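Weekly puzzle thread! Below is a chain. First person to post its structure in token form gets bragging rights.
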Amino acid sequence: MPLYDLLIQGGRVIDPSVGLDAVRDVAFAAGLVAAVGIGLSPSDAALTYDATGKIVVSGLIDLMVHREGLTPIGAQPSPGVTTAASPGDAGAHIVGAAKALPGNGIRWFHWINASKIGYTAWPHKVHPWMDYVDQAALTAALVAHQNVALGIKVLLGEVHTGHLPSSDDFVPLTRAIAARAAAEAATGQAFRILVHTGGMRTPADIGTVVSVLRAGDIIAHSFAGYANSSGQATGLAQGFAPIQAAYDAVAKGILLMNGRSGSMDWLTAVIVTATINHATPGIRMNLLAADWYTQAAGLTPPTPLLQVMSEYLALNTPSNVNFAAFANLPALSPAIALDDVIRAATYTPAQIIGSRGPAGLGTLAIGAPGDAVVLSLDSGAFTFDDDLYGVPPYGTDGHRMTAVQRLTHVKTVAAG
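Winning reply:
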């Protein structure tokens, strides 16, 4: 009987959890990683796959995939994703039903929406009905579903709370934080807050968000560039530089996520990562996510996680972006390494899941889940448009990037 069920031979294995970036063989048995080494024998494997010239990484983890069966915009994860989290599709009243949905080979977790109805009422937004933001129900849901609930998803900004008095803008966040505290006291389990900020009422509001979040909480759309109804920039970049709140977030240990679909702006991305005036260091994303959904009316086309990763890698050369003001910017220093990109879609999101997931998740360690992806790093000229490209009043200048490399999916291995 063969020692291994599958042997992937000769690929460039990148495992940021141990700093590995070298040509190795990876073997799987009984649904787990069984060996990583040089010269593993094909005769010991029931199946072999030649990955020469390709990249081999742990199965990708996307912490923002709208889940099929919970919302009209739900979908199966994009190629290469073997672990996913639903970003607030389920409110407190249907998390139990969400757990019962078939996984279809995907390991699923959930962010519980601060609104009890979640995204089940799409395309209606969730927070205009403040009665649905039920603190007690949130606490109860976190306690009951602590094995799959990563924390609470909170949507802020004019589109969600703009109809309310400004004094109520942060009511959903305040209630979520209180619900989290009660659930942690009851369970001893840590939960996180995932905040969607976009088109805030005032430019200062993002600073208020940062001031009440704690280390380990997440700002979901850190490259978003949408202005508020007054035309003001309200994100992490304002006035052609990262605002102080961006640095405060990093100092506090708040994690920055590039949740892509519907909220990417190359201008903001370049400003945040490169820092235009070079007086302060650029800021890096901790997490990459697709915010994946099915195509629906009124939504920008969804972007697969591998494209999100390719776009982030392309920011190493800001002059790739077609706006004259940045044409002479030097490459990023320090550069965004391929290792950084892989880490933000494997090992770091696995740390968010923590003990809710299996040991070794997001790595290729011996005994880790037998999830792996074979990738190709292609060379050429690849055009990436952000979500503001061609959208009035933003136009096209500064919203298209031409990259020289792109990660593409070759093969996914799930559970060995």
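Puzzle host: Confirmed. Bonus trivia for everyone else. The longest helix spans residues 171-187.
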